[in-house]
Structures are given as structure tokens and as C-alpha cells.
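Quick entry, no commentary yet.
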Amino acid sequence: MTMARRGLIAVPDAAAAALILWIWAYPLAWRPGLVGVVVLAMLMEFVVIQAGPFLGRIVYGDRMRLTPRERRRSALALGAVYVTFAGLAAGSFGRWFPFFLFAWLFGAKVYAALLGRRPDATGREREMSYWVLSNVLYLAVVFATMFVPVPMLGVTEEGSFYGLRGRYEWANYPHEALAAGFVYFAAMALIRFLDLRMGVELSAGE
């Protein structure tokens, strides 16, 4: 895969990292609620990550001996799950923006999968490898930012100031969520650009 194509694949993650860094440094530059949006985005991202294997069935269905009907069913089932999740998130916030947030996060995964698609097992192995890496990286940065001190930058207030409800970790210390988000998306952008992978073998039946 060419460097230019790898760069295009990395764009969504790089853009997310840059935006989170800006909000982390200047949370009041636009409106305080943006901090809460990042926290919600990080919660949604973990759920969206789990779509990796199902997304692979949809994108590489022809190579996995799936009929068009089976691919459509997979797409509808996956869409139903995430529309429901986004709806619950929208209801808890009392606004529609979680739907747009979900569309961005899920759309970024579809964009990367389609742009990196190859008509052989290499493409599927790459996507499965990215899925494993994203899970490991997400959990690593979340736990690391909870136990290792990270700078507050501009996020110096508790979550309630930024519109967050509850007393969970990120509501009490929202700067941890922004630090985790920045590191996670920046690292994923680098992984995709450098095409770093883990050894993931697919079964012969696929």
C-alpha cells in the first residue's frame, strides 16, 4: 500500500486526535459542553471498536463466501445495534448530537476498512490486526490515564462544569478522558499510517 493511501486512511484518527488536543487545551474556546462530547465519544468508541469483526464480514463478505443476502443481514443487524445505542445516549443527554457523533466514529471505521480493502486475505488480516490493536490500545490508555498523573491543560474543573452527570471517574476528572482520547486516536493514526500489525491468522474456512 502506498504512503499516500496509508495517509488517507489515517486522516480520521489524526483529525480526532487534533480536535481532542484543542479541546483539552482550550475547553472554553467554543462552549464548555465540548468536553462532555469528548467523554461520550470515548465511551462510544469502545462500543464501536467491537464492530470490527462484523464490519469485516460486511466489507469482505465476498471473500468469506457470504451471499449478498447474508451481508445485508449483517449490515442491518449491526446498524440496529448501534442506532439503539446512539438513541440511548441521545436520550440521556436530551439532545441529538450523539447520533452525529456515532455516525462520525462508525463512518471512520467503514472509511478505513473500505480504503484499505484488498481482494485477498491480506486485507482481512490487516483489519483484524487493527481491531486487536485498537482494543489493547484503548484499554491501555484508559487505565494508564487513571493511574498515571496527566496534565489538566485547560480542563481544570469537575465534570459538572462541562455538563457531565454522575460520579464516575471521567465525570470527576474529565481531563483523563481527553488525555486518553488524544493518545488513543494519535496512536491509531500512527499505526494505520505506518501499517503496523500484529500476527493474526484467519481460519481456512474464511
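second:
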Amino acid sequence: MTGSPPKRRVAVVAAHPDDELLGCGGTLGRHVAAGDEVWAIILADGVSSRGAPVEEEAISEREAAARSAANILGIQHLSLHRLPDNRLDTMPLLDLVRLIEERISEIAPDTVYTHHAGDLNIDHRLVHQAVVTACRPQPGFAAARLLFFETASSTEWQTPSSAVPFLPNWFVDITDTLDVKLRALRAYEREMVPWPHPRSYQAVEHLARWRGATIGCAAAEAFILGREIRR
């Protein structure tokens, strides 16, 4: 008689609060439904680049939205680091790598989700590079799988001649978790924009439906597989 398969440990490393949902909220919902242990690591505060002086209250509100979204989706662990929004290029990359290394070492995840390397947003690109560096395969531990997601209003806004285009080769059927992804996004209502902006609720759903249609299901999320280690 065989026992139940071991539960997986997965982590999403996102630049800003809401990227974790836009990029892989439905996939994280699948992990939760399967009983996997899920961590969300969010690095920048998400609001301090908006021109006017940002008060503690604004950052706290964004963090409260992240906690609410995590609760709706069922994410068990959330860490918020308050790095400068859209200014990650002002800090040494090594510091960012070490922060992520520390968290990855603590979690020892099987799978790590993070941003696509070619996004328009500078924070997304730097987080991608830092995650790949922090997750380099060394003796003793290596995350078995690295997956890079697309982020509405960043990935598709980059011009193809300026960076590596997003050409997905890994898809996750989120037919059963699209609704909870959209409900969790309601926690970030202040960050959502009316249709036809790509960061509108309608556009997020349309993208999921299109990604699903490309693989023959009702809804999906798309990724680029960075690395997979078969053990």
C-alpha cells in the first residue's frame, strides 16, 4: 500500500504587492488546494515611487492588501520587505541576492516562481536576476524548478527589440482557481485600473482565458521554464 505523495514547498518572489497574484495567483491557488506549503516573498513597498511624499499609512495599506489577498488565496506564509519601489537599481544587486538567498535557504522550496527577465519594469528585471543568482544550483540544495511569469502592464508593454520576449513553454490549467485569483485581486482594488487597461479585472480574466484557449482548457497561466532538475 502506498502512502500519499509528499506535499510540495513552493515560493513566489515578487517585486511588488499584487505581482504575486497577477503573475501566478491561479497556480498558487492550485498549490494551496493540493495541500502544498506556499510562501510569498514581496520585496518592494509598491507605492514609494509615486511622486508625492509617501506616508507610513500608504505603505501599511498596501501591506494590508497583500495580507488580505494571501488570506483569500490561502497562502500560508507572507513576507514583506519594504525595499524602495521602482528603485531597486539604487541598491547593490548583491544585497538583493543575499536577502533572497536567506529566504530561499530557510524555505528550501521545490519550485520558485518569479518575474520574466524582459519585463518593462526595472524592479521585475532585477528581481528576476537576483532570484536566478540566489537559486543557482549548488551542492547540497537547488530548487528543482524555476518558472518565470508574465505580469500585466509590464511584460506586454516591453518592445520585442528591447529585451527577450515572453515566449511561454509551460502552462498551468487554472480553470478551477481563476475565480479565487480574481477574488484575491479585489484586495488590491486601488491598484486595478478600468478596462481596457491590461491591469483591469477584465483584462486579467481575458489573458487567463486566452492562455487557456491556447492549450485547450478554460483558463491557464503561462510561464517560461528556467530550469528543471529531475531527481
